[in-house]
Amino acid sequence: MRLTPESKFKVVKDSNNIVFTEVGCLDAEKENPCIILSQGSKENKGGLILIETKNSLVSRIDICTVAPHWSSAIGTGEYPE
Fold first, then answer.
1. What is the mean pLDDT of each run of 10 residues along the chain (81 residues)?
2. ω before 33 within 30° of 0 (cis)?
3. Reduced to 3 states, what is the DSSP secondary structure of residue 38?
4. How many angstroms separate the CA atoms of 19 and 10, rounded?
5. Domain that holds residue 44
6. pTM across the whole model
7. Number of C-alpha atoms within 13 angstroms, CB side, residue 5?
8. What pLDDT is stored for residue 1 in this prediction?
9. Distance (Å, whole) CA 51 – CA 49
10. Is residue 32 part of a domain?
11. Within a domain: residue 42?
């Protein structure tokens, strides 16, 4: 069974755990930005959000928990409020 983005967000919301988002990239050149997701604490990383743009507009958002794995991302230490 494949979860939709809406159902994934509902699972997170229903857990009552704080979600942290860290700005990161998938490469040292910083050409592939991403968002690293943590739940409960900043150290409890569990997924990535990949965002594609086209003509300065968001064209695709992917929530990844397996591939690419969050450990392949380079975090910046920035956690937007």
1. 75 84 90 90 93 88 88 94 84
2. no
3. strand
4. 12
5. 17-75
6. 0.77
7. 8
8. 61
9. 7
10. yes
11. yes
List the structure tokens of 68. Answer: 């690419």
Cβ–Cβ under 8 Å, residues 38 and 44: yes
Opening angle at CA 77, ends 12 and 33, nearest 5: 75
Residue 36 falls inside a structural domain: yes
Residue reference for tokens 């592939």: 32
Q: Does the residue 1 lie in any domain?
A: no
- State both tokens at 50: 């990949």
Number of domains in the chain: 1
DSSP string, 44-74: -EEEEEEEEEETTEEEEEEEESSSS-GGGSE
- DSSP per-residue string spanning 2-31: PPPHHHHHHHHHHTT--EEEEEEESSTT--
CA dist., res. 38 & res. 7, Å (int): 17
Distance CA 80, CA 55 (A): 24
